[in-house]
Description:
Elements: H1 25-38, H2 51-58, H3 62-75, E1 78-81, E2 85-88, E3 110-111, H4 124-137, H5 152-166, E4 175-178, H6 180-194, E5 199-204, H7 208-215, E6 219-226, E7 229-230, E8 240-243, H8 257-265, E9 270-274, E10 298-303, E11 315-318, H9 324-335, H10 340-352, H11 354-380, E12 385-387, E13 394-398, H12 404-413, E14 416-417, E15 419-420, E16 434-438, H13 444-458
Parallel strand pairs: 3-14, 5-6, 5-8, 8-9, 9-10
Antiparallel strand pairs: 1-2, 4-11, 6-7, 10-11, 12-13, 13-16, 15-16
Amino acid sequence: MSTRGDGPSSPTPDLFIDVDRPGGLRHAVEHALREAVRSGRLATGTRLPSTRDLADRLGLSRGTVTQAYSQLVAEGWLTAAAGAGTRVAGAAVPVPGRTAPRPAEAAPRHDLLPGRPDVSAFPRGAWARAVARVVREAPTEVFGYADPRGRPELRDALAGYLARVRGVRVDPANLVICSGYTQALNLLARALAGRGAGTAAVEDPAMPDHVAILAERMRVLDAPVDGDGMVLDAVSGADVVVCTPAHQFPLGVSMSPERRARLLASRRTWVVEDDYDGEFRYDRRPVGALQPHAPDRVAYVGSTSKSLGPAVRLGWIACPPALVDDVVAAKRLADRQTPPLDQLALADLITSGGYDRHLRAARLAYRRRRDLFTARTAERVPTARVLGIAAGLHAILELPGAREAELTARLRAASVSVQPLSAYSRTAAMRPPSLVVGYATPPGHAYSAAIDALLAAVA
Length: 459
C-alpha cells in the first residue's frame, strides 16, 4: 500500500499502541490498531503516523507497518488518500457494547436567557490589537509565574477605572485579579470561612450557583427582597452579607439609601458587593458602589462577563486590606494565577480608551433593545408589567393570572428560551408568575423576531 502523505514534510501525530503480542509483528500491529479503533480511543478521522514514523517508534521495519496499514485499509478500518495520509475510517465499524449516541437536543430558536451580553458585539478588532501589542511588547517575565494578585498593569488600570466609573476607592495592591465572579466568590468564601465566618445572608431570589458556593462553607440565611432591596431584618447578625445593591439580580431594584446605611452600620459584618452590571444604567443617575463608604469591610467584585463576554475570564476583587493575604492565599491554591496575557490585553484596552468606547456603544444598543421590548409588550400584552428596567441587561415580565406550567409549555412550543423567576427563588412565596427576559442575548439581527415570538407565546 502507498501511504500517501507520508513524506517528511507532513507533521505526524503521536500514537501509543502495544505490540507485545504473539503471532507475528505485523499481526500485532493490526490487532493493536483494530482495538484502538473498536474501543473508541482512535476516533473517526484521526490521522495516524506515517509508516516510517510509526516503524521508528516501535522499532520495526517500515515494511511491517506498511503491510499492517494495507490490511486494515482493505478491511475498512482505515483509509488512505492523497494529501491526507492514513486515517481512521468512518463509523461503518461498529463498537461492541456501545450504544448509538443520542441526537443532540435542538437549541431553542429564540434565546432570551438572562445573564449574558450580545456576544456577537464582542470588540474583536480592539481586542485583537490589544493582544497583538501585548504579545509583541510584553517583557519575558510575563510568560512565567507571577504574583497571584495579578499583573500590576491591570491592577493599576482597574484602580483608576473603578474610581472614575463606580466611585470605588482601592489601592492597586489590594486588588486581586481572578477568573470571573464565580471564582471571586469562591475565594472570598474560603477566606471568610477561614476567619471564622459561619453564616452568610444572601438575597432571595438570587443565582442558585452563587448560593451553592456559599453553602459549601457557611450556613445560608435567606434575605427577602422588596422595592427597597434586601430586607435586612431577616438576616441581622449574619457574619457575611452577599448582595447586588446597585441592581438586584434578578428583580432589578436598587437598595435604598436607608438600607445601605443600615447595612454598613454593623461593624462586625463583612459585605460582598456584586456589581455585575454597574456600567449599564439608562434612566437615572448611576447608583454608586457601597465599597467607598466602608472599604475596610466591603469586598467589591466585578468582572468582564457582561461588559465583554463570558469568554474573557477576568474578574476582580477590591479587597478590604485585612482580607488581602487570605484571598491571595486562596487564589494561589485555586489556580496560581489568571492568564497574564489576557490581563495585559484588558489593561491595554482600558488605558487606550477602547474599553470605554465599547461600553458606550453597548449601552446605547441595549437601551434601544430595552425600549423596543417595553413598547411591544405594552402594545401586544397590555396586562403584563415590565419591571427592573432602569439598568442592566434583563427585565422582569410579570404576567398576572398566568400559570407557570402553561407558560413553560407554550414557550417551549414556540422555541423561546427564557427563565422563570421561580428558578431563582429559594422560598415558596412568590409574586405573580414572571419571566426573567435577557434582552441583550440575541445578536442584533435576531432580536426583533425573538421578542415577537416571546410575546406571541405569552399573550
